[in-house]
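Table S4 entry, Cytoplasmic tRNA 2-thiolation protein 1.
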Amino acid sequence: MAPPLCVVCKTERALIKRPKNHQKLCKGCFIQIFEDEVHHTILSSGLFYPGEKVAIGASGGKDSTVLASVLKTLNERHKYGLDLVLLSIDEGIKGYRDDSLETVKRNAAQYDMPLKIVGYDELYGWTMDQVVETIGKKGNCTYCGVFRRQALDRGSKMLGIKHVVTGHNADDVAETVLMNLLRGDLARLSRATSIVTGSNASDVKRSKPLKYAYEKEIVLYAHHKKLDYFSTECIYSPEAFRGSARTLIKSLEKVRPSAILDVVRSGEDMARLVPGQTQDPCACKTNAAPAPSAAEEDNGGGCGSANGRSTGGEMAAMEKQLRENDKAAEEKLETEITIPKSNGTGDRSKPKEPKASSITVPIMKQKLGSCERCGYMSSQKLCQACMLLEGLNKNRPEIQI
Ligand SMILES: [Zn+2]
Ligand SMILES: [Zn+2]
């Protein structure tokens, strides 16, 4: 049976069933819609200003590769006037990061963007391989996450850049919302859902332009745009709680595709109720205010590649199926191309317009000092990285302090 026509252009055959709402689209319309939605997110939250220098946190994984590709496309198409740079963190994980960094180097050439690589070894005196050797595999994602956050900040400072964008997608945000909900940590919800995070004490702003993009659509986009990315997962085990939250999100998506965006929006709504926090999911009229003190947020956890983590298996299966579909399509043109099925319904693909009555609470100034040891912003005497390092260094006899 020949595939039906694309519901948008009504001329091309629909080869893609959109994971977000099951719309049947041709390849061209899917790519266009994906880019338009990211453009809408960027415009509606006033994410950039003309001439801004922006560092893209690039891991070589699908999320940041798609982010770099889409930003390059939109920057040229809509004349954002952005100066885009790739910023990569080398955690020092043999067989994982060294390979993915090769991908980033190729991306830099493909997208004609400068690339800066900052290593954990030069920043902290420890590679992740050494950390794992010392503390074991359990809990290593905590170290990696804390180190990564500071590393991106420090790397962008080295480049004189005040805005870092990361490839966090809707699945990542939904996962973090659930985790904070399950922990009863509403204060963190705001940081998890906010498109812009920053801190009064830091002049480096963070944002996630792919916040409303489904992970499955990112895989589809990367596939159909034939992007060069690295799809091996971090070799060290992810945090168990995060893995469970992710599995839950994916199960919900199977029976109700809109569940991911629903959780993101519920997170935004709940964050608005937290005193001292402000949230505007789609601030069409105003600039997005940074959520306070994201200095030590756990958004995205470790494995900053956001590379599928515990559900890497599912994403890998999807990638494999896409490749097989391509092969089948080449061999037999009339083969319908589908992606793994799910049964739910839901047609809420568009980001909600902001509610007229949305409550905006002024941001409470948080008292943030700086770390006694390294000067990085911190509400404690020592920042999280220095606290972790203190523990690590105690366990390394040759450099005991
Ligand atoms: Zn079409
Ligand atoms: Zn410190």
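The beta strands are 16-17, 24-25, 53-57, 83-90, 115-119, 163-165, 196-199, 202-207, 369-370, 377-378.
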